[in-house]
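Appendix B. Raw example, untouched.
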Amino acid sequence: MSVAVLYGVGSIFAIAVIASFLFSILLRFTSLTESSLTYVIMIVSFISLFIGGFISGGKGQKQGLFLGGSTGLMYLLVVFLFQYLGHDALFTLKQWIYYGCFVITAMMGGVLGVNMSSESRTN
């Protein structure tokens, strides 16, 4: 199960790196500003957490709620440690709400990933 969570978290960060690269290219070579991309970045974040939970649930093939939640919590822990250790700042209330929603989204992805995996379905 821990391998499934690591696959999910790895996919979240891979999507984040790719999206960050694309957004940085857009910001550099167009007239877009960071504030104009706020909602797009939020949507991409939710999608990446959902995909990470989905991959985690698909790899684990059981207990999708647990696997998706673990994936979301692992992501939250890594981001929290980066923010606390790197920037010496704790989460604000707004960030706690966002990350709570991220964990719930990853849990939904985990449930769907388990249900969509081919070995767990019966014909």
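End of appendix B.
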